[in-house]
Write a structure and sequence with these properties.
CATH superfamily of the largest domain: Mur-like, catalytic domain
Strand content: 15-25%
Number of strands: 21
Oligomer: single chain
């Protein structure tokens, strides 16, 4: 992972001040650092090498390689290394030092910061909000899914000055949210939902909810927390920050009304007080589109966009959204939503399939990751949900395929329409899909990224 450092954070003196240490000068050195990389193979001349201590590898083992590739600075927990012409920043914790550097970048910026978190929908909402805000100013956004305790501070360090910073926060464990929020100091924090994604790393959903809500830790006193549907608000009364809600519930501050769903996606109105923004649209129907319309519209209203600017921003984002993309593989129309998955995201995609797929629909579902001891029962529940989604056939793939199959049959799906395959049986699965589905069927493909469902989709094309 590498980013080019933004100009305010390139000077060695600024970095030294941010870390609170004086670096060791080794040989002839320069006072400007071009970028920062966590992988020695990605180092470019003029970069700093961040020698992280990982679970299986210690970055200190690769400092020599980084210096040979042109690194001019090293940030590590170890002592100085053989080599010449570089700065050495020795710290107690490289991860904490990275947060300190990113926090310094935030302090040097006057940008309005929007931070987005939640169990599902973070990346798409980030892209939508960035598109909307580009109607009224310059925008920098975190790239891809750079949202972790390493990726997020790196994203911030690479952001050039702009009117708005839009960043995504992803957490997997207790204790991760607060330092990231404190680092970002968001002016507006958005929590899309809290479901069961990564639940295996938490004792319960309540513990997960409590951790997610720590996104308020870095908010200023006049900062705003915006919540999507399905998040309990009873525990938020003691928060000093302003808490607003957006969605379909009756008491929502930004209320979604007059929804129409179909193969075109969703069209709805968003009402706040006496003002109604009419005809907001998104190409993915159901709860996925509803959440994006509600939260995107709410952020737009809070940050002062006009009705015309909101419609323009939605239209631009819809043209490039990565979700639910359709393509034909021979006689089958595939909806590729295999980027990631959780139980809630599976249910939402199956709901959207009912609108997008026409009369003949089927699903290819794979394993969902990081569910821990809840994995078997949650995969079973997804199978039951699939049985109720009016699909003709269900193809299942991975270690938990049998759990999903059992859930589908328990949910009322005919057993001879449910097919479960383990890892290593990709070709058999692809052949079964092609032999079973009639021409014109729409097939939803969804699984966690680590399941690599694209292997099956590639085989579908090859077999044809």
């Amino acid at each position: 992972m590498r980013v080019a450092l933004s100009s305010p954070i390139q000077d060695v003196d600024v970095i030294s001040s941010a870390l609170g240490i004086t670096p060791q000068r080794v040989g002839e050195v320069q006072d400007k650092i071009e970028g920062i990389a966590t992988d020695h193979r990605e180092i470019k001349p003029g970069d700093m090498f961040l020698a992280l201590r990982g679970k299986y590898r210690n970055g200190c083992d690769f400092v020599g390689d980084a210096l040979q590739k042109g690194a001019v600075a090293v940030l590590s927990e170890g002592a100085a290394f053989p080599g010449e012409n570089y700065w050495h920043f020795q710290v107690k914790s490289t991860e904490k030092a990275l947060l300190s550097l990113a926090a310094a970048r935030r302090r040097l910026s006057s940008a309005t910061v929007v931070a987005i978190s939640g169990s599902t929908g973070k990346t798409t909402l980030k892209e939508l909000i960035a598109s909307l805000l580009s109607e009224i100013g310059s925008v920098q956004k975190s790239e891809g899914n750079f949202n972790s305790n390493i990726g997020l501070p790196l994203s911030l360090l690479g952001m050039q000055e702009a009117d708005f910073f839009v960043l995504e926060i992803g957490i997997n464990h207790v204790g991760e949210m607060e330092p990231l929020s404190v680092m970002l100091k968001p002016d507006l924090a958005v929590l899309t939902n809290v479901g069961t994604a990564h639940i295996g790393n938490f004792e319960s959903r309540d513990v997960l909810l409590k951790e997610k809500l720590k996104i308020v830790s870095g908010l200023s006193e006049d900062g705003i927390l915006l919540l999507g549907d399905g998040i309990e608000t009873s525990s938020l009364a003691s928060l000093p920050q302003r808490v607003l809600t957006a969605g379909m519930r009756e008491d929502a501050d930004f209320k979604l009304q007059n929804q129409e769903n179909g193969s075109f996606g969703i069209i709805a109105d968003l009402t706040v007080g006496m003002r109604t923004q009419k005809g907001l649209s998104w190409p993915v129907p159901g709860s996925i589109g509803a959440s994006l319309v509600a939260l995107g519209g709410a952020v737009s209203a809070l940050l002062g966009l006009s009705s015309e600017q909101i419609k323009n921003g939605f239209a631009r984002a819809a043209r490039v959204t990565p979700r639910m993309r359709m393509r034909d593989i021979g006689p089958i129309r595939v909806i590729d939503d295999s980027y990631n998955a959780s139980p809630e995201a599976m249910a939402a995609s199956l709901e959207a399939l009912r609108y997008l797929g026409g009369e003949n629909t089927a699903a290819l579902l794979g394993d969902m990751g990081e569910l821990g001891s809840f994995a078997s029962c949650l995969h079973n529940a997804v199978g039951e949900c699939a049985a109720k989604s009016h699909i003709s056939h269900l193809f299942l793939y991975g270690d938990f395929a049998k759990d999903m199959a059992e859930g589908a049959i328990q949910g009322g799906m005919t057993p001879h329409c449910v097919f479960a395959y383990a890892f290593g049986q990709e070709r058999m699965l692809a052949n079964k899909i092609l032999k079973t589905l009639p021409r014109g069927t729409t097939l939803l493909c969804k699984a966690s990224r680590k399941t690599a469902l694209e292997r099956v989709m590639r085989l579908l094309g090859r077999e044809l």
